[in-house]
Design a protein that fits this description.
The complex is a heterotrimer of chains A (about 240), B (about 475) and C (about 475). Chain A is an alpha/beta fold and about 240 residues long. Chain A has two domains: about 160 residues, Rossmann fold, CATH 3.40.50.300; about 60 residues, no CATH class. Chain A has nine helices and ten strands. In chain A, strand 4 and strand 5 form a beta hairpin. Chain A is globular. Chain B is mainly α and about 475 residues long. Chain B has a three-stranded antiparallel β-sheet, with helices on both faces. In chain B, strand 2 and strand 3 form a beta hairpin. The longest helix of chain B is centred in the N-terminal third of the chain and has 56 residues. Helices cover about 70% and strands about 0% of the residues of chain C. Chain C contains 17 helices and three strands. The longest helix of chain C is centred in the first third of the chain and has 44 residues. Chain C is elongated and about 100 Å long. The chains are: A alpha/beta (about 240), B mainly alpha (about 475), C mainly alpha (about 475). Chains in contact: A-B, B-C. At the B-C interface, helix 2, helix 4, helix 5, helix 11 and helix 12 of B face helix 2, helix 4, helix 9, helix 10 and helix 12 of C. The complex binds adenosine-5'-triphosphate (ATP) and magnesium ion. Magnesium ion binds next to helix 1 of chain A.
Chain lengths: ~240, ~475, ~475
């Protein structure tokens, strides 16, 4: 299968600080890749490079085979992004926010009813969807974020600690949705601190340290315990 | 795409109570300024009309007396003789020269409250042009503070309103975190900013045009006359151009990527620099470059000259009135002739200083016409004065036309004194009348047009700065 | 405790690059304005002193003539610039400078400097007072808007609150920090200005300057309190900033204009032509509700005769004595007419200024502006006092001339000529500005308003900081 997300010798430096040392990574359609690592390891940097929010110092980030640096707008048609905190326009309702972003994404055809349906699938009750976002909890905003990803029909999903601060049930629902999306062929890159959930949903897990991918493994033959042990070993030295 | 962004922007704007509050406050300020302006103009116009009516009846009565005395062939009492060219020119037929109010006079008080827009003209030297004071006296604090006129509202308050509405155009999205989500869509930062800015820009222009035009409604009847339409067009164009300049400044600072608070401070700092500091500096520059002669010294100078001549003059006048008693004999006319000579001598002595005043003032104005481009606020201030007919150029023209008219007035009477002629009723019918000639439309149009250019160029510079920065970056952070 | 907070605030501010830039700009403008103002004031002073001595020479050197003719010839006096005009030119540019004192006429001072200017003057001068009244408050706002809200947004407020410090103490510390920062900037300038004034040997002026500096300190205190109150009250730093800028705009731009507009509407003044016409016709006929002109003058001259002990003995006197007394009676009648009409206009103008003082309830800037002008000697009260003193001098001068006519003309009558001895007897006119306590009495409403603002703003800051949400 073709890679939907691909990093080739991707490097990012801030002055003397090397945030990312030549990362090589490839995520295929339908695959969920979880990125673990201490604070400041370079996870967010990686995701922002894929988004084109920051320019790489060397190497390239590719989405469905296109270089982000040269095809800024085209690559964005294929990706969806859910940050740690999905921030929305507080004076608009959930549906209005969703409508705005999907229209920007070029998905005008879905229509109001379709959007409500997507929101419901994402776990937001229809009456809540009609209320202003200023009264939403964090979990509700994250659900709108997922709905945005679903409505857009993205081929790759970039998630930066999307479940941090969600309650266990919310977290669980979120994982379900991710899994169903990946089953539809979406490639997922998720930065997270949650070892348990990485093992649950990730096909592969990578461990980052000081801007380098120090370990990369499939999760099938691993138990939670094993994964935690490997992670802590890497963090140790 | 632009439309999508613009639509969401409308919803965002309408949901914001501060937007409504600020808009309502601006509308209230405009309405108040329009109302007070039109009232003040009405009062001034009334005063001018009644002064001119009074003058008409005075001159008619004088003419009638002349006819009567011709009929009975007997000279009137000296000092009140309608046939005596000296008395008529100095006193009995004194002419009012009044600067007519422009159709848009309500827009800006300008220099109208300081410069005398009505002058009483007689044959006497420089004193023969005393202000006749047909405008209400104003307290010094009032003059110092300035009027709450439309020029003030648009020049000082409108930018602040624009700043409040746009200082966080983009920075708020960044701070709220929505910008990251937006830029994760296939939308460039340039498109997004353009969509937001276009909508606000269009709204802003619309609201400003409507407000600016509505504010002149009280003076609407005058707009149909003369250059009313031209002035209205220029005025609206200047206000819109100025609004766009501030809007462009707000967009440019937003694009530069500072925080909302920094943006607000920077924009208010810019306001202060352009509306307060720069005019203060230009004022100093103009004063230093072309200092006007000292009025205080002028007083002593003319007094020294006049005291010689006046002494002679008052002696002559005594002789004159004594001699005119009864008949117009030779000695009376000879005395009158000497009065004329003395008056001309006085005028001659004062002339260099009066000319120095006029030249320095003209030089100041010329320098200001150039330096105004340093600040759009000065451009607007000058342009508002121009369209309201209370600008320095029009007042200077009035002053020089008054000078020319006085020269004509003196020539009319002095010629008859020299020729030993007494006035006839035909002379009374042919007395020179003052009519103010407006400068050609094109001249005013060009000056204000240059001002518009002075607004447009910095606006375009700001817009291209924003465009360049936007082209380069696509980062939300 | 307060000191610790103040020192921390001071340190934070001094390390802020934005503050250093803004402070440098404000300081530069202030110094430039002071230097320029000082030089301008010195030039004006030299010019008017010179002019005054020329005018005096014209009076004393007018040659032999009848004293009443000399009173007609009159003399010019020139208003000296306000004692602290270099700090605050106030309304001086819009007030007349030259005044002709002559028989039968009460003139108003003419030749206001603003008449010989371009439209650019109407933006207002960039004087030291303008910098202090407009720019320094903005600097305070820029320094202090995030004082509370910024701590809340950064989360440091939680930690501060957790230490158990009383909000009152924190507030005092923050206010002190802001005040110290400002003092660091302005106190040296104030000292230099005071030293300059003292060195110029004007101790009365130094007293005025001291009070002026105190008033400005109070004004800055008000702005600091308002800033801290808004910062504590607002939901976010942004909101605090916008609210404070709105406050600044309304109090320095909108309220002063509305106030002077309202004053003009409440107490309308006649046109100059109407005033002249009214004086003219009253002079010809007689005061409203008073005796007709001739009778009025008659009573006045009877009173004069009585005063000189000549009652009933007119016929025995020489003609010139009677003429001199009658001239004086006419002058007194004219004075009554001037008092009636011109006095009314002056009173209206003074009341207009009074409206401004009351309007300071909506703007502390209005209060400090009036106080500053008054203490600088450049307000309408000082102008009016100059006019009054000059008018009193004129009446004395005309009286002295008429008196000399009455006493010494004798048989010569109108042919009588006085000489330079008499001209020299008239002591030169000297304008004495009011003492500081008089100025403060005149400005008591403005003072009260400033005090009200100080109390109100402090109270607001204390109350708001006590109720402030930590999160
Ligand atoms: N704008 C920047 N300027 C300088 N250094 C930066 C910048 N952004 C990130 N860094 C540095 O790059 C490194 C990687 O940061 P990054 O945000 O990618 O870490 P992270 O793995 O997402 O950490 P966390 O788990 O805390 O979110 C850090 O050392 C950080 O200090
Ligand atoms: Mg991160």
């Amino acid at each position: 299968m073709a890679a939907v997300l691909e990093a080739i010798a991707l490097r990012k430096t801030y002055g003397d600080v090397v945030a990312l040392h030549g990362l090589d990574l490839s995520i295929e359609a339908g695959e969920i890749f979880c990125l673990l690592g201490a604070n400041g390891a370079g996870k967010t940097t990686t995701i922002q490079l894929f988004l084109g929010f920051i320019a790489p110092s060397a190497g390239s980030a590719r989405i469905v085979g296109l270089d982000v640096a040269t095809h800024a707008l085209q690559t964005k048609q294929s990706i969806a992004y859910i940050p740690e905190n999905v921030m929305l326009y507080p004076n608009l309702t959930g549906i209005e926010n969703l409508e705005f972003f999907t229209t920007l994404a070029g998905r005008r055809a879905i229509g109001r009813a379709g959007l409500v349906e997507i929101l419901t699938r994402a776990g937001l009750a229809a009456d809540a969807a009609g209320r202003r976002v200023s009264g939403y909890s964090k979990g509700m905003r994250q659900k709108v974020g997922i709905a945005m990803a679903m409505a857009k029909g993205a081929r790759a999903l970039l998630l930066d600690e999307p479940t941090s601060g969600l309650d266990p049930k919310g977290s669980n629902e979120f994982s379900r949705l991710l899994q169903s999306m990946s089953a539809d062929g979406v490639g997922v890159l998720m930065a997270t601190h949650d070892i348990f959930r990485s093992k649950e949903i990730g096909a592969r897990v990578g461990i980052m340290k000081h801007g380098q991918l120090v370990a990369c493994m499939g999760t099938e033959d691993l138990s939670h315990r094993d994964l935690e042990r490997i992670y802590l070993e890497h963090m140790h030295d | 795409m632009l439309w999508t962004v613009a639509r969401i922007e409308i919803k965002n704007l309408l949901a914001e109570t501060s937007v409504w509050l600020v808009a309502v406050l601006l509308a209230a300020a405009v309405a108040y300024a329009g109302w007070t302006g039109s009232r003040a103009v009405a009062v001034d116009r009334q005063a001018a009309v009644s002064a001119l009516t009074e003058q008409d009846s005075r001159l008619k009565a004088l003419h009638a007396r002349m006819l009567r005395s011709e009929a009975i062939g007997q000279a009137a009492q000296s000092g009140d003789d309608p046939a005596d060219p000296v008395v008529v020119g100095r006193e009995l037929a004194a002419q009012l020269a009044i600067l007519p109010l422009s159709p848009l006079a309500a827009v800006a008080v300008g220099q109208r409250d300081l410069a005398s827009a009505s002058v009483r003209i007689t044959t006497d030297g420089p004193q023969g042009r005393t202000s006749s004071g047909e405008t209400a006296l104003a307290g010094p604090t009032r003059l110092m503070t300035g009027a709450f006129d439309l020029a003030f509202v648009f020049m000082s308050l409108l930018p602040l309103v624009i700043i409040v509405l746009t200082y966080d155009l983009l920075s708020s999205e960044r701070e709220r975190g929505t910008l990251a989500l937006v830029l994760a869509q296939p939308v460039s930062l340039a498109t997004f900013v353009l969509g937001k800015a276009l909508l606000r820009g269009v709204l802003l222009c619309g609201v400003t045009v409507v407000l600016a035009a509505l504010a002149t409604l009280p003076s609407a009847p005058d707009l149909m006359t003369g250059d009313g339409a031209l002035h209205l067009g220029l005025y609206v164009a200047v206000v819109v151009g100025y609004a766009l300049f501030w809007f462009a400044a707000a967009v440019a600072i937003n694009v530069a990527g500072f925080s909302s608070a920094t943006n607000a401070l920077a924009l208010v700092g810019l306001w202060l620099a352009l509306v307060v500091v720069m005019p203060g500096m230009v004022q100093v520059a103009v004063q230093v470059a072309h200092p006007p002669p000292s009025r205080v010294e002028l007083v002593n100078l003319t007094r020294a000259a006049a005291s010689e001549i006046e002494a002679e003059l008052s002696a002559l006048q005594g002789e004159h009135s004594a001699a005119v008693q009864g008949t117009a004999d030779d000695s009376a006319l000879a005395a009158a002739k000497r009065i004329v000579v003395a008056q001309e001598a006085l005028e001659h002595r004062a002339a260099p200083v009066m000319i120095a005043f006029a030249t320095q003032l003209a030089a100041q104005q010329a320098l200001l016409d150039t330096l105004r481009f340093l600040s759009p606020a000065i451009v607007v201030h000058e342009a508002m004065g121009e369209v309201a007919g209370s600008g320095a150029h029009r007042l200077q023209q009035f002053a020089s036309q008054v000078d020319a008219f006085q020269a004509r007035w003196r020539a009319f009477f002095f010629a008859r004194v020299r020729a030993h002629q007494r006035l006839t009723s035909a002379d009374h019918a042919a007395l020179p009348r003052f009519v103010f000639r407006e400068e050609p439309r094109a001249t005013l149009g060009w000056r204000v047009g240059a001002g518009l250019l002075g607004l447009l160029v910095p606006t375009l510079l700001l817009v291209s700065f924003a465009a360049i920065v936007l082209r380069r970056s696509s980062r939300p952070a | 405790m307060i000191r610790v907070v103040a020192v921390k605030e001071l340190r934070e501010l001094l390390r802020d690059g934005r503050f250093r830039l803004a402070a440098a700009v404000v300081l530069g403008l202030l110094l430039a304005a002071l230097v320029f103002g000082w030089r301008h004031a010195q030039a004006v002073k030299a010019e008017r002193t010179a002019a005054q001595s020329i005018a005096r020479a014209a009076w004393t050197g007018q040659g032999d003539k009848n004293p009443h003719i000399a009173a007609h010839y009159g003399m010019y006096v020139f208003k000296p610039a306000g004692v602290l005009a270099f700090v605050d030119p106030g309304a001086d540019p819009y007030l007349g400078v030259t005044l002709k004192l002559e028989a039968h006429k009460q003139q108003l001072p003419q030749d206001a400097p603003a008449q010989d200017g371009t439209a650019i003057d109407r933006f207002g001068q960039l004087s030291a007072a303008a910098v202090l009244q407009l720019l320094v408050p903005l600097l305070i706002i820029a320094l202090g808007f995030a004082s509370w809200s910024g701590e809340r947004e950064r989360g440091t407020l939680r930690q501060l609150a957790a230490t158990g410090v009383l909000p009152r103490r924190l507030l005092a510390g923050k206010a002190l920090g802001l005040a110290l920062t400002l003092a660091l900037l302005l106190v040296p300038v104030a000292l230099v200005a005071t030293a300059t004034v003292v060195a110029a040997g004007e101790s009365a002026t130094a007293a005025r300057l001291a009070v002026l500096l105190g008033a400005y300190a109070a004004y800055f205190g008000v702005i600091i309190a308002v800033t801290l109150a808004a910062s504590a009250w607002a939901q976010s730093s942004r909101a605090a900033l916008v609210a404070l800028l709105g406050f600044w705009c309304v109090t320095t731009l909108v309220v002063p204009r509305l106030a002077s507009d309202a004053a003009g509407r409440l107490l309308p003044l006649p046109t100059a032509a109407a005033l002249a016409q009214a004086v003219h016709s009253t002079l010809a006929t007689g005061l409203p509700n008073g005796l007709p002109r001739e009778e009025h003058i008659d009573t006045l001259s009877k009173a004069l005769l009585a005063k000189h002990g000549f009652a009933g003995a007119e016929t025995m006197m020489d003609d010139a004595l009677l003429q001199g007394l009658e001239l004086q009676a006419e002058a007194e009648y004219e004075n009554a007419v001037f008092d009636h009409h011109v006095g009314a206009v002056m009173t209206s103008m003074a009341h207009q200024e009074q409206v401004g003082q009351w309007a300071a309830i909506a703007s502390p800037m209005l209060a400090i502006r009036l106080l500053s002008m008054a203490l600088a000697g450049t307000d309408f009260d000082h102008h009016r006092a100059f006019g009054r003193q000059a008018e009193a001098y004129r009446r004395g001068l005309v009286g002295a001339m008429n008196d000399d006519f009455a006493r010494n003309a004798g048989a010569a009558g109108w042919q009588y000529k006085a000489n330079r001895k008499l001209w020299h007897q008239a002591v030169p006119f000297a304008y004495r500005p009011a003492a500081v306590d008089q100025v403060l009495r005149d400005q008591q409403v403005a003072l009260a308003m400033l005090a009200l603002w100080a109390v109100g703003a402090t109270l607001a800051a204390v109350l708001v900081s006590r109720r402030m949400q930590v999160l």
